[in-house]
Write a structure and sequence with these properties.
The protein is of the alpha+beta class. It is 19% helix and 32% strand. It is built from 13 helices and 38 strands. Helix 4 runs parallel beside helix 5, helix 7 packs parallel to helix 8 and helix 10 runs parallel beside helix 11. The site of (2R,3S,4R,5S)-2-(hydroxymethyl)piperidine-3,4,5-triol (DGJ) has 11 residues, from loops.
Length: 726
């Protein structure tokens, strides 16, 4: 890993693991993108700037038609409105005069020994960081561009700090985190789309002239579109071709854009959604954008995913937890929903004794007046009518069985029917005098307000301080409507979406980080807030409310595009499945759940002895595989989106062991066999596949493959353990 600057050619080379990112300062002082891909030589790449087509181009401000680089045409590292660059700008300001002009030119640069954190927002740790200071040619408005590279992940992290060094206020109308331009337009664009219970389905569309834009206007990253986009060179596949993925470490309204311009090139940009956004930058103030992580692969989508996984495991997810063995939970939600009492919970615990399940998570309904989802949120006080003996009785019982205890909260919410709302209706987001929109019969706390955050921090931390709680599930079951805070001045109301998420991160700091001995799991009505911002605090997130094994093959496949397996919480639940009514075998449910942080979510009091034995064996198997799930490299082999199979290998970093999960959707009387070529092994090592009794070289297993004899039933699966033979 190294960041170098060639004084002669004015080129920056950022060399990370198996990648180079390069850009230069043009003769006119602009930053022009040169390369983002495999490692390249430190050559003079200025020729690369050769323009494609031009169309009604003007000179740079103040330029003459005879000056060098007269036409304002290059692949931008940051782009701004007001010149003849009509491609998507990454910045738009408005000065006190009302003009929206700026012209950001190179001023200086520095290479930092340590990566600075972003004030109030999560970002990646470590790496080597370059800061390029840009300044407006005609004022003291500036932009500092941050770039960080790593020697253990093929990514570059980028962000911008905008600085108002002028003597009058400035409005930021658009303040994206990054931009880069690429020659040509021969790309496909992948995004991860979805909705509740079917999150993160890959969707690939061809680039076209105009803008491909994906966004969220929900003040959260959302299940609708994940803050991720990938550019795939034409013909790139799971295993081949150049892919550049971009993921925002951000949990509020965002936008990511890819533009095929009339100049014949492609511009990629994005960050905070500028829809319903204006930030007031006072004199001397600065504004920090969220971080964008750009992953580079020459091994197709698989290489991109492994780059993101390495980056997030080594530099984003809490260090203390990321590689630590995970709790194996029994969660009571699908077992009881709101209908439980102390005796029922004790029975659920007793029924898993000896199975290896080690944590009870008491889900929604333990607090305030909460027998359904219509009331009680915000009143974080145990409901002793429902839980005789309070939390203490069930916590003590769980601990007495050698198990840990977890508790559900939804700290960002408030029910209209709650003591806290009756006392402080103004705590809820919305404009007095206008009826608010209900969602799941609840409102949202106005987290832009410090007093509201203080109330939440105090009441949640009180429960954690007064009880011996080992684990928290932090849920978030609706999105912002009625975006308005009674405390914000009118000109600051369009800062709401960003201020809201700064409030969320403040809660995470003061509750999650302030309780380092508690294990925190993220959740949002399933996986509707599965993003890097949340993963910076929570080592795992509930992947989806859809717990059906067949559905989960797709949801977990899509999620693995960006996020590591260890980040995906995955439970074995009851059949017929509560979301799909489908019946799959217990073995299949476990095989799929084992491709994430495994747990259970069903009424264990209904277990037969045989069930209990089966769970015990499953937990033992999971423990054996856990090292691979936490640290291994994922190789997606068969996609459940375009085949009747789901096949995935997870290989240890030293390639000495692997697990292979095979799954077939529907039984076929005349095609019981399917050839699977393993992936990610060392071609020269010899491996043994347990259960198939095959011993062969990695090169054989990856090219000739193996033939799986699928069982004669729908939704059949198996997990094979692959070990190096020395
Ligand atoms: C949505 C979550 O995804 C579920 O697992 C459960 O915790 C419910 N909320 C509780 O209301």
């Amino acid at each position: 890993m190294a960041i170098t600057f060639n004084e002669q050619t004015k080129t920056f080379y950022l060399d990370g693991k198996d990648m180079t990112y390069a850009f230069r300062i043009t003769e006119s002082g602009y930053l022009a993108h040169l390369w983002c891909g495999c490692p390249i030589g430190h050559d003079d790449l200025s020729y690369h700037n050769a323009r494609g087509r031009i169309s009604f181009c003007a000179t740079a401000p103040g330029g003459t038609v005879t000056s060098a680089n007269a036409y304002y045409v290059f692949h931008p590292e940051i782009s701004f409105f007001g010149t003849s660059d009509y491609r998507e700008p990454s910045v738009q300001i408005q000065t006190a005069d009302g003009d929206r002009l700026c012209d950001l030119l190179y001023n200086s640069h520095e290479i930092l020994p340590a990566k600075p954190a972003i004030n109030g927002m999560p970002s990646m740790r470590g790496g080597e960081t370059l800061v390029v200071h840009l300044k407006d040619a005609y004022s003291d408005f500036g932009a500092d561009l941050y770039y960080t590279v790593y020697d253990d992940a093929s990514v570059v992290a980028r962000r911008v700090v905008f600085v108002n060094g002028t003597d009058r206020p400035i409005k930021l109308l658009r303040a994206y985190s990054f931009a880069f331009g690429l020659p040509g337009q021969e790309y496909d664009v992948m995004s991860l789309q979805g909705s509740w219970a079917c999150e993160r389905s890959p969707e690939i569309i061809p680039m076209h002239h105009g803008v491909v834009s994906i966004d969220s206007k929900r003040c959260t990253s959302s299940a609708t579109l994940n803050p991720f986009i990938a550019l795939m060179t034409k013909g790139a596949t799971e295993t081949t071709g150049r892919v550049i993925g971009v993921n925002l470490i951000y949990s509020s309204s965002f936008v990511l854009k890819v533009e095929g311009s009339c100049l014949g090139d492609t511009v990629v940009t994005g960050g905070i959604n500028d829809f319903d956004f204006t930030w007031n930058l006072g004199v001397g103030e600065s504004f920090e954008t969220p971080e964008a992580v750009i992953a580079v692969s020459h091994e197709g989508l698989g290489g991109m995913s492994r780059a993101f996984h390495d980056a997030y495991r080594n530099h984003l997810i809490p260090k203390k937890r990321v590689f630590e063995s995970r709790p194996i939970v029994i969660n009571n939600w699908e077992a009881t929903y709101f209908k439980f009492d102390t005796e029922k919970l004790k029975a659920i615990v007793d029924a898993v004794e000896g199975t290896g399940i080690d944590t009870l998570v008491l889900d929604d309904g333990w607090f305030g007046k909460r027998d359904n989802d219509k009331s009680g949120l915000g009143d974080w006080v145990v409901n002793e009518q429902k839980l005789e003996g309070g939390l203490k009785a069930i916590i003590d019982h769980t601990h007495s069985k050698g198990m840990k205890f977890g508790l559900w909260f939804e700290p960002e919410m408030i029910s209209e029917d709650s003591d806290i709302f009756r006392a402080h209706p103004d705590y809820a987001i919305g404009k007095p005098g206008r009826p608010r929109c209900y969602s799941r019969t609840q409102y949202m706390m106005d987290l832009t307000r410090k007093d509201v955050r203080d109330y939440i921090v105090n009441s949640v931390n009180k429960v954690l301080a007064e009880n011996d709680i080992d684990y928290v599930k932090w849920d978030y079951n609706r999105n912002v409507t009625d975006a308005f805070s009674v405390e914000l001045e009118p000109e600051k109301q369009m800062e709401f979406a960003h201020r809201y998420v700064l409030g969320v991160y403040d809660l995470f700091e003061r509750i999650v980080n302030a309780n380092p001995n508690v294990f925190f799991e993220g959740c949002s009505g399933g996986g509707a807030r599965f993003d890097g911002g949340v993963l910076a605090y929570f080592p795992q997130i509930w992947t989806s409310d859809d717990t059906d094994a067949e559905e989960r093959t797709k949801i977990q496949y899509g999620t693995s595009m960006v996020y590591p397996l260890s980040a995906m919480s995955a439970h074995v639940s009851a059949v017929p499945n509560h979301q799909t009514n489908r019946i799959t075998s217990m073995a299949t449910r476990a095989d799929i759940a084992h491709l994430g942080a495994t747990g259970y979510e069903l009424d264990t009091t209904e277990f037969t002895d045989e069930d209990r034995e089966m769970v015990k064996a499953q937990v033992e198997e999971y423990k054996m595989l856990e090292e691979l799930i936490l640290k291994g490299d994922v190789y997606r082999i068969d996609s459940p989106f375009n085949s009747g199979f789901f096949t995935q290998a997870v290989v240890s970093k030293d390639k000495s062991s692997a697990m292979l999960t095979v799954y077939r959707r529907l039984s076929d009387p005349n095609a019981e066999r399917h050839r699977v070529c393993l992936a990610g092994l060392d071609k020269d090592k010899t491996y043994h596949i347990e259960g198939l009794d095959i011993t062969a070289k990695g090169s054989t297993l990856m090219n000739v493959g193996i033939v799986i004899q699928y069982g004669k039933r729908d939704f059949w699966s198996e997990t094979y353990i692959v070990t190096e033979v020395k």
